[in-house]
Known about the structure:
Layout: E1 2-8, E2 13-15, H1 27-37, E3 41-45, H2 46-50, E4 61-65, E5 78-80, H3 83-92, E6 98-100, H4 104-110, E7 116-122, E8 133-134, E9 143-151, E10 161-168
Parallel strand pairs: 1-6, 1-7, 3-4, 3-6, 4-5
Antiparallel strand pairs: 2-8, 7-10, 9-10
Amino acid sequence: MVTLIAAMDKNRLIGTGQGGLPWHGVPRDKKHLRDYTAGKALLLGRRTFEEMPGWFGKDDRPIVITRNPAYGPGEDCFVAGGFDQAMDLAVEFGRDELVVCGGAEIYRLTLPFADRLVLTLLHGSFHTKTGGVFFPEWQEEEFEEVKREDFEADSGTPLSMTFLHLTRRRGGKHPDC
Length: 177
């Protein structure tokens, strides 16, 4: 199973384009990401991986997709030259789900294969000096909402948000995962 997980604003903005997020102080989303990805095979582009030091637990299996075969991400991380090789590594690790954690190019590459989308929708619009990086558009009719959690801003997280789980429709039936 392939799942894309991302946080975005109402315009699908996911990054500044110069490394990092256009918003700050969203611990609820960070916890949501960690809870969902725990113990799963994770797929990230090289730049996204390098922007997330300390995010991965000992049971995570980050796979870094890069065009550079000499890239060495470090201990307990793996390199794939493409999506097929990343899928093979996930199977080799005995993981039944590959969670794509970004960036934008990797999301575009993997969206056609996605069985699920796990999205944090930040209620607001953010701006960047560079124009930003965006999550690709998806065909809403291809996915069905299976779970939604709405959160108002509070002292711990100054942004209201929605956690949205979508499953790809397959002839009217959900894939068994």
